[in-house]
Amino acid sequence: MSSPPHLSFFLSSTPSYLFTHFQATVTMNNFQIYRHIQNPGWTLGWAWAKKEMIWSMVGAQTTEQGDCSKFKGNVPHCCKKVPTVVDLLPGVPFNQQFSNCCKGGVVGAWGQDPSSAVSQFQVSVGLAGTTNKTVKLPKNFTLLGPGPGYSCGPAKIVPSTFLARKHPSCCVSFSSFYNDTITPCPSCACGCENKKSCADPKILTKKGLNTARKDNAPLLQCTHHMCPVRVHWHVKVKYKDYWRVKIAITNFNYKMNHTLWTLAVQHPNLNNVTQVFSFDYKSVAPYGSINDTGMFYGTKFYNDLLMEAGPSGNVQSEKDQKTFIFKQGWAFPRKVYFNGDECMLPPPDSYPFLPNSARGNLASFWTLSLTILILMFISIW
């Protein structure tokens, strides 16, 4: 016997500088053995329990925005009490994508291909809350598009076997040569429960700081993100035939060294890596024909040991890649894992963006500059 599609909502509380909100990863698994969801694809709807609204989405979009007139400046993605969500089409900009998204709502049959029998998107919900008592589950789910015979039961909270720890153990920050803005790790990315017991970076040279404590408790450097490890991805420069990225990993834990560390990165251009400096690199192809994931690790006896927090608590490398599309956050990774744990990335709309003059082609700036210099040289002579 076949089973109907199954919806899973994985919620994670995230602080906001404007509204209390949470992020939810919405996963649709089609457990039908021989029946797939074909064009025009699925359409998902629900009703908010309170006054929630969709602040932003990746991997999907709503069909209507609703009345968001009370919001000034930053406008939410959707303010409707009963939103209707559809999948994105293949080929959408990189910063709008999410894992298992962007297939036009088409979901394969589980019995034919389990890897294609899932569809996902992420939604940031505002005006909601940040605790189990204040966050309420949506109501009245409807699944349209697959055809007749599909209905949704009431939402319920179930144990999640995917939650390895309460908070991430690392975060990612971004910067680029074409924008002076540095996109930092999200505030409290790894939780701020240890904010009162963290160590001020001014005491880095204090004697006895790195000695063992009786309670064996971790001691973190005080930061706005409160993460033990930060990965910084800097788009360094663009040459004629390739562009270069600098990767720096910083350890903020005064009580832990990372031996034989690994950094896994998912990026659409990793199949075009031409050279890696200081780190070792190995291509990882989890889906056979798709080569968008790579693993970086330290060179043996050189930098395969990431020291505890302090002057030596970082390792860094540079790598060259072909292709020059920098628009829509394309130059930044989709996912980052340190020692197998997924790191928290900044929200996509905060990535360093191209100046208006450089949206067409970064090379046009240098072409214009060279033209002006030639004209000045001619006018002098």
From TrEMBL:
Keywords: Glycoprotein, GPI-anchor, Lipoprotein, Membrane, Signal, Transmembrane, Transmembrane helix. It is found in: Cell membrane. Residues 169-352 form the COBRA C-terminal domain. It holds the Pfam family COBRA. It comes from the Eukaryota. Its main location: membrane. The chain crosses the membrane at residues 362-380. It is a lipid-anchor; GPI-anchor. The keyword Transmembrane helix applies. Belongs to the COBRA family. This is COBRA C-terminal domain-containing protein. It comes from Brassica napus (Rape). The lineage of its organism: Eukaryota, Viridiplantae, Streptophyta, Embryophyta, Tracheophyta.
